[in-house]
Amino acid sequence: MAEVVLRGVWKRFGEVVAVRDMNLHVKDGEFMILLGPSGCGKTTTLRMIAGLEEPTKGQIYIGDKLVADPEKGVFVPPRDRDIAMVFQSYALYPHMTVYDNIAFPLKLRKVPKQEIDRRVREVAEMLGLTELLNRKPRELSGGQKQRVALGRAIVRKPKVFLMDEPLSNLDAKLRVKMRAELKKLQRQLGVTTIYVTHDQVEAMTMGDRIAVINQGVLQQVGTPDEVYDRPANTFVAGFIGSPPMNFMDATITEDGFADFGEFRLKLLPEHVEVLRDKNLLGRDVIFGIRPEDIYDAMFAQVKVPGENMVRAMVEIIENLGSEKIVHLRVGGITFLGSFRSESKVREGQEVDVVFDMRKAHIFERKSGKAIF
Ligand SMILES: Nc1ncnc2c1ncn2[C@@H]1O[C@H](COP(=O)(O)OP(=O)(O)OP(=O)(O)O)[C@@H](O)[C@H]1O
Ligand SMILES: [Mg+2]
């Protein structure tokens, strides 16, 4: 087992900066997620850790060992890094049985036959593949193939697992099942794991911590609760959570309201204190609140018109059964509310909505940086 450390890592492809000054410390045994939109540099980061790509600048450590540093001329090849990788395409050997596919990395390393047999059977048991050991890959379902690919990765007991969207080829239901299995397996093995995905639900449900990346730049590293409750900026706030956080242009008034022009909301005293300290009273900011923190007033305890409640027009309702995503409008301002399924809202009618101001976020207008 080992920690993985990136210090000031850059990767350029000609003009393109794929990774920009990345600093990341993955702890021993941790399940770290690299999360971000397509093209943000997730795979490139993983490939540099694996040794399939050399950084342009910076240092990478696996355990205490420096494995890449172009300035010192250090570059340890992949086979000497003691890592195992699982990719989106499982790339099993089609002519080999499940048993031989899993055994393959051990055979390459000339592990004694008895030891190979013991470890293949142990891994197969763990992954529920015991009954399938004599089958060929074409006789397996997608989920079974993916488990064989996982088996091949874990059989070696590497220091670090690197996984690049390993579940994205599976159908939605199987993905949910494999998500839980993979997480359980990682806990059981305790092997440091770096897992790439652009799916925020996968990230939230699986990760010990999540590293959110945008355009090659690390935005925030935190536990799922931290990135959800205390996003560092508007990018993280908008990327984590579904439907995404509402953002509204506001001015902070001297008397402690967020003023949207059409209406205003009273900020909590402790929030006003923070804004006063930052010299933001009287200034333009971005106000953020998640749909799940906006209620149908019918179901709200504390409701004060002009403070935390406003009458809004219901434009569209998306009924998800467990909840209703309601598209709301006050004058020219639109936002989403996630209402309880019992809500009696109707499209084209007005409804009183309540904002849970304890859950309000304020971001700097220019930089998008979170004040709280
Ligand atoms: N070999 C390469 N040559 C040139 N540009 C590259 C190369 N590999 C990646 N890039 C560029 O670097 C950036 C980051 O790519 P990367 O594959 O790391 O993104 P990603 O976050 O994994 O995206 P996705 O979610 O689509 O897989 C992109 O702009 C991509 O076009
Ligand atoms: Mg990728």
Word description of this protein:
The protein is α+β, with helices and mostly antiparallel strands and 372 residues long. It folds into two domains: 4-239, P-loop containing nucleotide triphosphate hydrolases (Rossmann fold, 3-Layer(aba) Sandwich), CATH 3.40.50.300; 246-298 and 307-364, RNA polymerase II/Efflux pump adaptor protein, barrel-sandwich hybrid domain (OB fold (Dihydrolipoamide Acetyltransferase, E2P), Beta Barrel), CATH 2.40.50.100. It is 25% helix and 34% strand. It has nine helices and 21 strands. A six-stranded mixed beta sheet has the order 7-8-9-3-10-11, sandwiched between helices. Strands 2-1-4-5-6 form a five-stranded antiparallel beta sheet, covered by helices on one side. The chain has a five-stranded antiparallel beta sheet with strand order 14-13-12-15-21. Helix 2 packs across helix 3 and helix 2 packs parallel to helix 4 (142-154). 37% of the residues are buried. Bound molecules: adenosine-5'-triphosphate and magnesium ion. It is a peripheral membrane protein. It is an enzyme of class 3 (hydrolase). It holds the Pfam family OB_MalK.
Helices and strands in order:
Layout lengths: L3 E10 L2 E11 L4 E5 L6 H9 L6 E6 L2 E5 L4 E2 L7 E4 L11 H11 L4 H15 L14 H13 L5 E5 L7 H18 L2 E6 L2 H7 L2 E6 L2 E6 L1 H6 L4 H6 L6 E7 L4 E3 L4 E3 L2 H9 L6 E6 L4 E3 L12 E11 L3 E8 L2 E8 L9 E6 L5 E4 L8
Parallel strand pairs: 3-9, 3-10, 7-8, 8-9
Antiparallel strand pairs: 1-2, 1-4, 4-5, 5-6, 10-11, 12-13, 12-15, 13-14, 15-21, 16-20, 17-18, 17-20, 18-19
Helix pairs in contact: 2-3, 2-4, 3-4
